[in-house]
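Input chain follows. Return structure tokens only.
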Amino acid sequence: MSSKSTINKEVFTPNDEKMLAAVQVKRRTKKKIPFLATGGQGDYMTFICLSVTNRKPSQLSITKVKQFVGSSAFTKRSMWTIDQLQQINGIDPNRDCPEFDLTFDNAFDQWAASSAGEKCTFVQILHHTCQRYTPNKKPEFVNCQAKLMGGNSILHTAADSVTSAVQKASQALNERGERLGRAEDKTADMMNSSEQFAITAHKLAMKHKC
């Protein structure tokens, strides 16, 4: 089971919540904390998680979850409601990058995700979820790439991939059909030629008999 699946099972499911997204992070400070620390008391991995309650009306939360080295358990450290989230800063709107900032009513965190792709996925899901669940006060998204603000662009990308695969398969079938058609035409021509040869040979044989 992956770390994110375990976090959902251990941290959110018991509270009747569902984790929608999670990103593994470290602080952008001079003190570097490795993602997979190999020693030293107090070393840990940090995840920023987005969750929603199963009960209605749905409530969104941002939760900081940690796993300390030597422990298999995940611990909830801090939690904010989506209403407390003021701003998401994607740092660079022109390229994929792992850095992002979160500004809450009472906190400001500067993070670097374990990869640019993981950060982009988290920001995109967060944006889409805010559009869906927060009709009134929405957090501000700044310096985020346009592709991340498209709501369902992940689904669109998947749909485009499926469509492309279907089109390629259809083209391959059409090409195969054309090849089979040409082969059938050649076979028919050969059969016609054979019949004509047989008729001609028969006529010549009858002529020599006479």
